[in-house]
Automatic annotation (TrEMBL):
Membrane topology category: Single-pass membrane protein
Molecular functions per Gene Ontology: (+)-abscisic acid 8'-hydroxylase activity; heme binding; iron ion binding; oxidoreductase activity, acting on paired donors, with incorporation or reduction of molecular oxygen, reduced flavin or flavoprotein as one donor, and incorporation of one atom of oxygen
Protein species of origin: Salvia splendens
CDD domains noted in UniProt: CYP90-like
Subcellular location: Membrane
Protein name according to UniProt: (+)-abscisic acid 8'-hydroxylase
The keyword Transmembrane helix is assigned to this record: yes
Signal peptide: 1-22
């Protein structure tokens, strides 16, 4: 017993000594490392991230150290430092993700890589989601939006906005990845993916019964289904969507397993993000009735045009005529800042704004903090889309990241939101049910309970030969 106590005391002293070493003889940024090992993890994940960042920013400045998820880290909230980490010196900061996410998504997904392999995949994904590639997909996105909205009409109780938006974003992501070609495995993939994502925020403990273990089993089953699709598509020259583009790269450049990891990767990147932003859009529009009215006027003008032109569907060009709605989306991305920060790791000791970031330390550009700085966005707590009538200063607005690993799906995500908003706003009204201002974090900030809403259909009565119209609530 005594020996055990002595051993424990020595181990604790060693840990404490190493802890103190961090701060010695180096110009580390100011800040608190919290408790040994736990650091400030609990504070970051239980407090409102706005207050976590703003109290430290006030106390220490735009760059400060902390210790989260078992790693020493430096948090940065100046545009200049963000530029250096994400773009100008990106080669010194490699992307890093929790192990559970890397293993469940698949280690060959592009987020986890740098160099040639990353650029090959980034080129493929960016080409599949560029404006010229996605302009032809408006009709398919619209079909998915209309199917979702019509399913709401029969709801007798409030619906959970987040869950509904997840359905929508998942289906749109599958369509963009597989190219809209019907595959017998699609439904199975949908069910399995729902199980897989439950493991994303678990600890990577691979023992029977653990959440991670269950999710890994699901990941294997998902792989088998993807492999069947990949094999069939290889025999047919690739087909459409991102999958087709990945299958057509030079023989031998991508293995089936790398392709499967990237399919899961893109679904992961496209799904929860877009669904969460759509949920916030409904919340902000609901809370700002005058703005909703102005957005409705913009959308109804377009709906009327479609009707006068023979009840045609939306096109890419129509979505370019939605300038106010587009600014509402921009402001939602700023205000909600659902990707609060990202993770990088210093590959060597790096000098940053007069401080040293030691090799192996994590570096977190704090997007949310920058988006809520009054120097860049006056009265940052006010929801005000008109601020985007002028372009923001470089590196002050990064809802889709920036630099080498910036989001290749940003235009597609915005298109998806514009199409859904068009049909929602011109045909339905919604009312938020219950506790209106609470937020839950899991991992993205989202209105509590996923924003339960009550939806009513409204039919439109157009007054032909006039520019005005009226709507009747049913
Ligand atoms: C509103 C929705 C979305 C938001 C807020 C969002 C945000 C982001 C952010 C902040 C990053 C950079 C992460 C970093 O630097 O570590 C990123 C990367 C990425 N996003 Fe998105 N994203 C959205 C939708 C999409 C969609 C629809 C796709 C589908 C193609 C997509 C695919 C990706 C991919 C593949 C990456 C990794 C890029 C790389 O590592 O080079 N995202 N996204």
């Amino acid at each position: 017993m005594t020996i055990l106590m002595v051993a424990l005391a020595l181990a604790a002293a060693g840990l404490f000594f190493r802890w103190c070493e961090h701060g010695r003889n180096r110009r580390l940024p100011p800040g608190s490392m919290g408790w040994p090992y736990i650091g400030e993890t609990l504070k970051l994940y239980t407090e409102n991230p706005n207050s976590f960042f703003s109290t430290r920013r006030k106390r220490y400045g735009k760059i400060f150290k902390s210790h989260i998820l078992g790693c020493p880290c430096v948090m940065i909230s100046s545009p200049e430092a963000a530029k250096m980490v994400l773009a100008s010196k990106a080669h010194l900061f490699k992307p890093t993700y929790p192990q559970s996410k890397e293993r469940l998504i698949g280690p060959a997904a592009l987020f986890f890589h740098q160099g040639h392999y990353h650029s090959l995949l980034k080129r493929l994904v960016a080409a599949s989601f560029s404006p010229s590639a996605i302009r032809g997909s408006v009709a398919s996105v619209q079909t998915i939006a209309l199917k979702l909205l019509s399913s709401w009409e029969h709801a007798t109780s409030p619906i959970c906005t987040l869950l509904q938006m997840k359905k929508y974003a998942f289906e749109v992501a599958m369509m963009s990845v597989l190219g809209g070609e019907a595959e017998v495995e699609t439904e199975g993939i949908r069910c399995l993916y729902g199980e897989l994502e439950k493991g994303y925020n678990s600890m990577a403990v691979d023992i029977p019964g653990s959440r991670f273990y269950k999710a890994m089993k699901v990941r294997k089953a998902l792989n088998e289904r993807l492999m069947k699709i990949i094999e069939r598509r290889r025999g047919k020259g690739g087909g459409g969507g991102l999958l087709g583009n990945m299958l057509r790269v030079e023989a031998g450049e991508l293995t089936d397993s790398q392709i499967a990891d990237n399919i899961i990767g893109v679904i992961f990147a496209a799904h929860d993000t877009t669904a969460t932003v759509l949920t916030w859009l409904l919340k902000y529009l609901h809370d700002n009735p005058n703005l909703l009215q102005a957005v409705a006027a913009e959308q109804e003008g377009i709906a009327r045009k479609l009707q006068l032109e023979g009840e045609r569907g939306l096109t890419w060009d129509d979505t370019r005529d939605m300038s106010l709605t587009a600014r509402v989306i921009q402001e939602t991305l700023r205000s909600a800042s659902i990707v609060s920060f990202t993770f990088r790791e210093a590959v060597e000791d790096v000098e940053l704004e007069g401080y040293v970031i030691p090799k192996g330390w994590k570096v977190l550009p704090l997007f949310r903090s920058i988006h809520h700085t009054s120097d860049f966005f006056p009265r940052p707590h006010k929801f005000d889309p008109s601020r985007f009538e002028v372009s923001p200063r470089p590196y002050t607005y990064m809802p889709f990241g920036n630099g080498l690993h910036s989001c290749p799906g940003s235009e597609f995500a915005k298109l998806e939101m514009l199409v859904l908003l068009h049909h929602l706003i011109t045909t339905y009204r919604w009312r938020v049910v219950g506790e209106e201002d609470a937020i839950q974090y899991g991992p993205f900030p989202v209105p509590k309970g996923g924003l339960p809403i009550h939806v009513t259909h409204q039919s439109r009565r157009w007054e032909k030969d006039s520019t005005s119209f009226s709507s009747i609530s049913q």
